[in-house]
Amino acid sequence: MKEYAQEGALIAVAYLVAYLLTFYLVMPIQNLVIGGAYTELASLVFLPHGVRVLSIFLLGARAIPMLLIASTILVLLFEYPGAYFTGTSGALCAYLAFKIFQLAGYRIEPRSQLVSQWRSLMLIALVAAVINGLSIPLILVMGGFSEGEVTPLILLYVIGDTLGAFVFFALLAAGGRAYRWVQGRQSVS
To answer: Quick one: which of 5, 96, 138, 169 has the most CB atoms within 10 Å?
Structure first.
């Protein structure tokens, strides 16, 4: 139970940090560079998607409650229309993508060489982004947005989730290399 609580706390914190980085660093830059009405509703680099995919990859369905808790906390902090349901969509999209691949006979599981699996994880992140990109506009339409308002968002959500996962995995890889470099330097000293 203690291990599950630690895993859950790590997922929740990683999701919250990725979300805050996206909305307080990435989106302001995006709005300055691109601007436009839709860029306020969708980030072109949505880092939490990488947390979703990695969490489900490592923990499977056990990660879903923690992703739901993290998205609920975010809804309470940054309330926006349809937020409760979009958080559920986000928490489930990576799990559904893994299940689709599993049903197709393609199984990807954690092993010691996570780096060698990045292509598979990115493919799953893309499928999860499509699932999420189709479900969020549907939720927004049910929440009162017009179909014309949300249709352009589909592509933005797919691009944002996919790029966000790519950047998240790249940052993780760079952090791992930096950590090994520091450890190597300390062992030489």
So the answer is: 169
Calculate the average pLDDT of the chain. Answer: 84
With tokens 């062992």, the residue in question is 187
The CA distance from 143 to 121, in Å, is 32
- The count of other CB atoms within 10 Å of the CB of residue 116 is 9
Query: Would you say the pTM of this structure is higher than 0.90?
Result: no
Evaluate whether 87 touches 117 at the Cβ level (below 8 Å): no
| DSSP-derived secondary structure for 19-50 | HHHIIIIIHHHHHHHT-SSGGGT--SS-THHH
| H/E run at residue 178 | helix 147-188
- Percentage of the chain beyond pLDDT 90 is 37
Give helix 2-21 / helix 63-77 axis angle, nearest 10°.
40
Alpha helices, DSSP H, located in 25-117: 27-33, 48-59, 63-77, 83-103
Asked if the model's pLDDT at residue 176 lies above 70, the reply is: yes
Nearest CA-CA partner of 151 in 138, 163, 164 = 138
Phi-psi region of 82 (alpha: psi -120 to 50; beta: other; left: phi over 0): left
For residue range 72-130, list pLDDT tens digits in order. Answer: 888 777 765 445 566 778 889 999 999 999 999 987 877 656 556 788 899 999 999 99
